[in-house]
Design brief:
Layout lengths: L5 E4 L8 H23 L3 H14 L6 H13 L5 H17 L8 H12 L3 E5 L4 H9 L12 E3 L9 H11 L6 E5 L2 H9 L3 E5 L14 E2 L11
Parallel strand pairs: 1-2, 1-4, 2-3, 4-5, 5-6
Helix pairs in contact: 1-3, 1-4, 2-3, 2-4, 4-6, 7-8
Amino acid sequence: MQTPRVILTDIEGTTSSIAFVHEVLFPFARKALPGFIKAHAQEPEVQAQIQAVAIEAGCDPNDLSIVTATLLSWMDADRKVTSLKALQGMIWKSGYLSGELVSHVYPDALAGLQRWHDAGIRLAVYSSGSVPAQKLLFGHTPAGDLQPLFSGWFDTRVGGKREEDSYRVIAGRLGEEPAHILFLSDIAEELAAAAAAGCMTTQLVRAEDGTRPAPAHPQVRSFAEIIWDAR
């Protein structure tokens, strides 16, 4: 593998534990959601997402009970809906700022990201979680604020992570050819989409996250195993 100019990384199961997302972040947001919607529904940023939920679900945006029930059902089904992710991000922000939440980043991921950044390789994030939620996660780690390591942040507004065109859009926004971008993920379908777009790929296979191996892509157990030909 040639030296990448950009490393584009997934979060859940790649830089961070799936357990943290599903056992800490999601329950925190689910518990807080009804009260958050009721308290903040008239704020423009929240109102915009409520309207988006109503359009997606075909419901009345003024009926907050239906909007809330719809969002909770999407959470339970782990739907990758942009409006849901945006609202979750707003709720998590309050938790991070209050100190109730501290994010998780694997030590090997932290070391690898810092090493690549110091070597002059650009780093970017692509996650189904909203960009604000991504920045909160990397901004409130046990190692401090990691946001300065990254020069690009992408969520489902560029397209689904299993759609190859999404990776072409990201490449265009980064000003790089897909062939110069290395995409890291634990999900086979995401890696396949990135490869179809022309990106280099590597799968993180972390035993603790129960990753399903994707033999079509290089596989590593940690960021420390990700290497390339430096020539």
